[in-house]
Amino acid sequence: MAAAKRVCFLYIAQHHQVWHSLSVAVAMARRWPAIKVEIAATTPELIDYVAGLIAELGGAPITLVLLPPAWLRRLGGGGAPPKTPMLIANALRLARYDAVITPERTTALLRRIGVRHPLLVYTQHGAGDREGPFEPRLKLFDLVMAAGRKQRDRMLSEGWVTEETCAMVGYPKFDLVDELPPRALPRFERPGPVVLYNPHFHAELGSWPKWGKQVLEFFAANDRYNLIFAPHIRLFETATMDERAAFKVFAENPRIHVDLGGPAAADMTYTKAADLYLGDVSSQVYEFLRTPKPCLFLNASGARWRGDPSFHHWLYGPVLETVEALGEGLDGAFATHGDYREAQAQGIAETFDVSNIPASVRAARAIVDKLESAA
């Protein structure tokens, strides 16, 4: 590389997105010392979170930057500050980098407000099936990562990327999970199968608004299953103290573990601990199925899902059309898991491209190659 380059791994959303690119930043900083790697985030808490993970990994030559202005942080309602104003406020700062690497699509706004110099790289933050992530903003990125052929082929066929702007690199989050010390798993007073209920925040397709409370009440009343209730981090990100207090009665149940958005909700602690995945449209089902296990899906929206690629993961287990059948559905999902094993294995193979080279290194190399070709 002719001249030293300076790149920014940008975090302007919730902490779960860190897991989809931090290992790439570390790989780049360690293997390409001529590149100055910086990580920029919008809250002190997120900076501390990233610093802690890097320390656990044994360190890396990375500079951490807290993005201004402080007053915008007060508009976050207890969560991440609004992304669009933060990007506008930092546009000139971000324009000075040679590449801005991000796990979310809002950063494409930089192109719309006239920022032209840095390469824009989108790492993705999940490998699910919903159609939402397959959208026009992808065309504004110079490089878009794909975890596997399913994601790559859909982006190509729908015209969101080209062969030149897409790199299939595997799933860097797995590298981070595998390299960090094991996290403590939830403990329950009595043995029993562990169910992970992981509702998405999607207002229509998510199961929480219509069925969520009934699901929790079912597990509170049953003496067979243990439950981890760990919804998508964004579902209760800005919930009030009173709204959170409503879960106290469930959290005090010895057979229920409640986590409305803590670190363990992002680092695969719960997907590894659970024996069965209960959910709707979250991409976390693919992380759960890294080891094939039973799944049960909740069609609270009455979606006509068969044949729709956005619901492809619903082929990995039974689908409930009514919450009243939850007990029978759980029993059936465990009893019939053998019927879904082949579909699960095929789904994982097409979702995550596996190589003897770590995904984080493959992703870092793809960015370096793009920088070199743009020089």
Characterize the structure shown.
- By secondary structure, the chain is α/β, with parallel strands linked by helices.
- The protein has 2 domains: 188 residues, 3-Layer(aba) Sandwich (Rossmann fold), CATH 3.40.50.2000; 158 residues, Rossmann fold, CATH 3.40.50.2000.
- 36% of the residues lie in helices and 15% in strands.
- It is built from 16 helices and 13 strands.
- A 7-stranded parallel sheet has the order 3-2-1-4-5-6-7.
- Helix 1 packs across helix 16 and helix 8 crosses helix 16.
Features:
single chain, 375 residues, alpha/beta, Rossmann fold, 7-stranded parallel sheet, 6-stranded parallel sheet, 15% strand, globular, TagF_C, Glycerophosphotransferase
Order of helices and strands: EHEHEHHHEHEEHEHEHEHHEHEHEEHHH
What structural class do the secondary elements suggest?
Answer: alpha/beta
**Major beta-sheet overview:** 7 strands, parallel
Would you tell me which CATH topology of the largest domain applies?
Rossmann fold
**CATH architecture designation of the largest domain:** 3-Layer(aba) Sandwich
The radius of gyration is: 21 Å
CATH superfamily of the largest domain: Glycogen Phosphorylase B
Name the shape in a single word: globular
First-residue to last-residue Cα separation: 8 Å
Helix content bin: 25-40%
Instruction: Estimate what percentage of residues fall within beta strands.
Output: 5-15%
CATH class of the largest domain: Alpha Beta
InterPro entries: TagF_C
Protein name: Glycerophosphotransferase
